[in-house]
Amino acid sequence: MEIRLLDRRDASAYQALRLQALRESPHAFSASHEDEAGRSIDEVAARIVPAADGSACVSGIFEAGVLAGFVALVHLQRKKLRHGAELAGMYVAPAYRRRGLGAALLRAVIVHARSIDGVRQLGLGVNATNAAAQALYRSAGFVSWGVQPRALQIDGVFHDEEHLLLRFDAAG
Ligand SMILES: CC(C)(COP(=O)(O)OP(=O)(O)OC[C@H]1O[C@@H](n2cnc3c(N)ncnc32)[C@H](O)[C@@H]1OP(=O)(O)O)[C@@H](O)C(=O)NCCC(=O)NCCS
């Protein structure tokens, strides 16, 4: 197993797995398959290459050289927001689930977030009914601070989003 930041050479594999994620787990993402299906490989590459200002990057987890999962880390550069980072778009392909890949990817992105100068907490939003992801995040120490009612509307059905936070400095 290898975990590393994705770059331009990963664009095709990432786009294939991302579209699979949006098809297979529509309730887990705010983006829809229709939003992203038409993107060119150049557009995808531009989205996954680590931003020059450090505001976003995507980590991938590989098994035998095959991309099996990914997660994005967003670090907004505004001065008043720089103490926080956000995790987004976490996914492990069904064939690789329940083997510890999600937990390994999450550990790696937490280590990365902690290493960014000034970052003291990591937040994320998760569908309130997504038991697998909720369990994964809570086992890593994330705690809930609120629920946004009707955050997503998918095929006419509303879904609440739970907001979780992992504070690196529990005291303050
Ligand atoms: C959530 C997801 C990333 C977990 O990936 P994974 O590689 O299967 O996770 P792991 O094998 O590392 O499991 C880690 C922990 O997560 C929890 N977990 C994972 N899958 C679970 C499930 N189906 N039911 C309950 N808990 C689950 C467990 O606590 C597990 O620890 P354990 O195996 O010791 O019980 C994966 O199921 C996925 O991609 N789901 C669809 C997309 C999604 O929901 N993304 C999250 C968006 S916020």
Automatic annotation (TrEMBL):
<keyword id="KW-0808">Transferase</keyword>
<dbReference type="InterPro" id="IPR000182">
    <property type="entry name" value="GNAT_dom"/>
</dbReference>
<dbReference type="InterPro" id="IPR050769">
    <property type="entry name" value="NAT_camello-type"/>
</dbReference>
<dbReference type="Pfam" id="PF00583">
    <property type="entry name" value="Acetyltransf_1"/>
</dbReference>
<dbReference type="InterPro" id="IPR016181">
    <property type="entry name" value="Acyl_CoA_acyltransferase"/>
</dbReference>
<feature type="domain" description="N-acetyltransferase">
    <location>
        <begin position="1"/>
        <end position="171"/>
    </location>
</feature>
<protein>
    <submittedName>
        <fullName>N-acetyltransferase family protein</fullName>
    </submittedName>
</protein>
